[in-house]
Amino acid sequence: MMAILMTFLMTYAKRLKGALDVPPASSQNSNLENNSSFITSRKESTDHHAFNDQREQQVRRPKFGSALRFVMVVGLEGTGHHFMGEIAKNSPFMKTLHGMNLAPEELANLELSLFNNMEPANSLWNAHCATEGNPNIDRVQSMVVKHLEKMEQVAKKEALNHNSTATGLQTIHVPLNTLSISPGSGMISYPNELGDCRKLNYPSLDLLYRACDMAGVDCGHVYIYRDPAAILHSTVTNRHFSDSMLEQIHLYKSMYNIIMAELMTFPDRTWGCYGLLDASSIGNTTTGTVSHPSWWQEVSRLWGWSSVKEFNEYMKSVYKAPKPVGKNLVSSEFEPYMDALIKAHQKVISVCQKTQSGELESVDPN
Question: Looking at the whole model, is its pTM more than 0.85?
Fold first, then answer.
């Protein structure tokens, strides 16, 4: 038994070291651009080849082959949840969900069962913050499973009614957060919402994936990131989430460590790494005559766009290239904390890329 345990620990240590090796900044965008990881088996539009010559894109190791794939957008607050939500709300997949009467009401019910700041005792992710009532996590988990099962059943029935097998079954990606279609949920970021329980208010992927497995549906996550200084500028300087810059830096570093641990725990469920509002991710990728960030193509496919023209036209109305934040935002007296924050940020990006590409696999102690 001791020999087995030592072998596991040595293997885990080696993989942990490899995961934390941060690639050069010049290679990060190219890695993100080259890693395509979504299935959307569908009839492509006439200009589909401008996105990718491959007609089908694969989610790594889909577990159940469900009609719906539920997507959790993981990231610190201030990294682009509102922006991602706007893209998702106006996407072809969201129109399909509305057509099946799964949005907004049923999707809002699922969202509230995951995070409910108004009635935390009735939610999976912040029941520990309840000051009233008696949280029953088993009951709440069953409620989440019920919502997932119901949505999947509706989608499968709809597919059969429309004889989708004749044209290829279209797998629909469903955003679990960023939509904020129910009061009390917020963006479900790390951390989420303000208040006394703020430091403990963040999602838990292990609880989510446990429920997904019980419901027999495929669930995964994408990670969104942004330069830490820009995050602090957004949340402290502009929106006053905290009166203390130092406290916020320390909180975000803790959140990075939590996110990194979750990405490493579920490497097969990493479906994308996007610097939506990160100035270093602007890049010089061009589709047709449009220059865009390196994440542009993957995000379009994530939410069901098969037409280059339609997505480009939509993005013209919502996307503004981010500008770098000055280095004097944080006092030099806080440099040790800020340096640790930046390093944690870089490590999480590295882990995300390596889990998405398959370079980092899960460790099985058995």
Answer: no
Tokens of 42: 């569908």
> Token pair of 138, please?
């088993």
CB 327 within 8 A of CB 239: no
Residue whose pair of structure tokens reads 């469903």 in the numeric block = 174
Do 323 and 233 contact (CB within 8 A), yes or no? no
SS3 at position 218:
strand
DSSP 23: P
At 236, the amino acid letter reads: V
Q: 36 vs 40, 137, 247, CA distance in Å?
A: 11, 36, 37
Q: Which amino acid is at 208?
A: L
**Per-residue pLDDT tens digits for 262-309:** 999 999 999 999 999 998 776 656 565 567 888 999 999 999 999 988
Residues whose CB is less than 8 angstroms from the CB of residue 293 and which lie 6 or more positions away in sequence, other chains included:
275, 276, 281, 282, 283, 285, 321
Distances (CA, A) of 355 to 19, 49, 61, 174, 302: 8, 27, 12, 21, 18
Q: Is 302 exposed, middle or buried (0-12, 13-18, 19+ CB in 10 A)?
A: buried
Q: How many CB atoms lie within 10 A of CB 309?
A: 15
| 286, β-bridge pairs | 291
3-state secondary structure of 173: strand
193: phi > 0 → left, psi -120 to 50 → alpha, else beta; which?
A: left
Say how many C-beta atoms besides its own lie within 10 A of residue 18's C-beta. 13
Nearest alpha-carbon partner for 215 in 302, 303, 124, 299: 124
Domain ranges of the chain: 28-224+270-321
Tens digits of per-residue pLDDT, 66-91? 999 999 999 999 999 999 999 999 99
In whole angstroms, give the CA distance from residue 122 to residue 141: 10
- By C-alpha distance, which of 339, 349, 187, 348 is closest to 249? 339
Residue 163: how many CB atoms within 10 A of its CB?
8
